[in-house]
Amino acid sequence: MLAGLTLMGPLGWPVVVANLIGWPLAYVAARAYLNVFIQPIALGVLPFLSSLVLTLLIAGVAVARQTWRTAHVKPAAVLFAGSAMGRDLAPRVAARLDAGLATDCTVLAVEGGKLVATRPIYAGKATQKVGFTRAPAMVSLRPKVFAPHAGNGGAAKVTPLSLAYDPQAARAHIVDVKATSAGKADLTEAEISRFSQYAN
Q1: Has this prediction a pTM greater than 0.70?
Q2: CA-CA distance, 146 to 138, in Å (whole number)?
Q3: Does residue 29 form part of some domain?
Q4: What is the rounded distance in angstroms from the CA atom of residue 17 to the CA atom of residue 30?
Q5: CATH number for the domain including 108?
Q6: What are the two backbone dihedrals, phi and then psi, of residue 196, each rounded to the nearest 5 degrees?
Q7: 2-34 vs 46-71: helix axis angle to the nearest 10?
Q8: What is the pLDDT of residues 36-55, one digit of tens each?
Q9: Of 19, 62, 68, 166, whose CB neighbour count within 10 A is largest?
Q10: How many domains does the chain fold into?
């Protein structure tokens, strides 16, 4: 419901603008209709304000209903990237939802209306097909395996942003930088990996 109220900010302005455009037309039409009578009544501002409140209320109910339906939709599958964040987040979400998780998947298919994931096991010497007995199916994908979706070929619009930065107004300052001992390098997302082997 909070999300629906948040969306009403940008969505409420078109309703207000539509009312402002429609009010003069409605006034002319109502005035012409009332002039037919021998004793026409005065046409005040109350009907127009009532129409604005009513249209805003209808828009708010529609947005809140759609937001509630979207928030309560149970997805059939949840996909995670094979990045460091994805590997950390996937098991946490699976545990929170009490759902099964298949990691490092290389192939996804739908068999009998259910998702089936294929992943390598035993250091890549064999492959394993994993099915899911209930939704949502939680899957993390191996990097650089799935080809990106081909777009329509249109170029994205680039909007330059100007940033005014005042170093004196910064709340945090770097005092010192110390190098730590190098750990194991993560090469799962490397574009090119080179290995050399030397023999005596």
Answers
A1: no
A2: 17
A3: yes
A4: 20
A5: 3.40.50.620
A6: -125, 145
A7: 150
A8: 887 777 778 888 888 888 88
A9: 19
A10: 2
